[in-house]
Amino acid sequence: MNNKHSIDLNFDREHIWHPYTSMTKPIPVYPVTHAKHNIIHLETGEQLIDGMASWWSAIHGYNHPAINKAMVNQINHMSHIMFGGITHSSAVELCKKLVDITPSSLTKVFLADSGSVSVEVAIKMALQYWLSQGIKTKQKLMTPYKGYHGDTFAAMSVCDPVNSMHSLYKGFLPEHVFVPAPTSKFSSTFEQSEALELEQYFKNNHQHVAAFIIEPIVQNAGGMNFYHPDYLACVRQLCNQYNVLLICDEIATGFGRTGKLFAVEHANIQPDILCIGKALTGGSMTLSATLTSDKIATGISEGEAGVLMHGPTFMGNPLACAAACASIDLLLEQNWQQRIEEINNQLQQLHKCIELEDVADVRVLGAIGVVELNKEVSNIDVATIQAFFVKQGVWIRPFGKLIYLMPPYISDENSIKTLCDAIYSAIKGKHYAKA
Ligand SMILES: *Cc1c(COP(=O)(O)O)cnc(C)c1O
């Protein structure tokens, strides 16, 4: 595994964009040579316990032999083949599994290459559905504040307008209807006033609204908000009542992260359209899917266009589909509910952070743990806190005022303790002030 050539950090800094980063004043990046299980190996010799699962995706850790084996086997047949006019066993097998494990009304699968694209496809499905019904007025989307649905333009237009800097793209971005973010907490009681307020928005806007799009139960990148299942149930009911489709974006929450296989199960509802991605391949390849019902698919296909107007070059990529099949098998073969519950119990250690003066809130749901700092704390300096975390032997990447963990499901008790302790020490020592 030893790299003879060291990773050229100068070239990286001069020429390569990283996520949400300045090209002229980038924060440092850490050179990784390999990753295995829940350990990330740096070229400089440090071994870091992973607390991020590479942004919700690496649920089985890295370099998992079963996923590797499935990918090698697929490479030996073909890594890629176009999906137009062609099909293959990895796509068929994967879509069978997806139809099987997602809510029962979802029977039709569109494979795409990233989460954002699956959201674009979901939006197209909703618009095309109403057009096919001869209804031309439904061209807006409705969505709560604090949402996150990706960085492409249609997806961005339904992200929280402040977090995603809508003002930068004003005039270019389509404008949609924003409703208040859910406020009743996951484990408290549901405030009926939220339902009444939502109903007003539906009443006033439904004629122009094609679909309501929401992340079920956990609003992630928009603030790690864990909200009450009755909010989602209420949205479902209002969508039925006012003829609005429901798009659930489970790109982050899917595949067990919240304690249910899909977070919609907390509210016992069926979406009209479902987006999945991130953990779909166990974090090994980029792949996403948009699922919908017979009703929507039939509507679209019998409308004027007669087809769904989307077809990525790498649609149904065999290598990614093979990895996804292996990842889903791995998940379902184990008692994953118990695994998530164990991680949940261990993440409760984060609650001791509440005694620290800078901490506003600590919350844990499924295999997600969040420590939120006070408003008064100026934003966390990511470079400073990451340098501290690397010294502690952990990989954690906060954003805004949130320091959070979503470790791979294979993480052991000691790893989680080390992650939680590192967060406590970072806050106690205020290792987030700009150095
Ligand atoms: C990450 C994410 C997306 C975007 O997925 P990409 O693969 O980054 O394009 C969309 N919605 C949610 C809820 C996400 O967490």
From TrEMBL:
Residues reported to bind pyridoxal 5'-phosphate: G115, S116, D249, P312, T313
Residues annotated for substrate binding in this entry: W55, Y148, K278, G311, R397
Any GO molecular function: adenosylmethionine-8-amino-7-oxononanoate transaminase activity
Class in the EC hierarchy, top level: transferase
Documented EC number(s): 2.6.1.62
Record-annotated site: Participates in the substrate recognition with KAPA and in a stacking interaction with the adenine ring of SAM: Y20
Pfam family for this entry, one: Aminotran_3
Database matches in Gene3D superfamilies: Aspartate Aminotransferase, domain 1 (3.90.1150.10), Type I PLP-dependent aspartate aminotransferase-like (Major domain) (3.40.640.10)
Protein name, per record: Adenosylmethionine-8-amino-7-oxononanoate aminotransferase
Lineage: Bacteria, Pseudomonadati, Pseudomonadota, Gammaproteobacteria, Alteromonadales
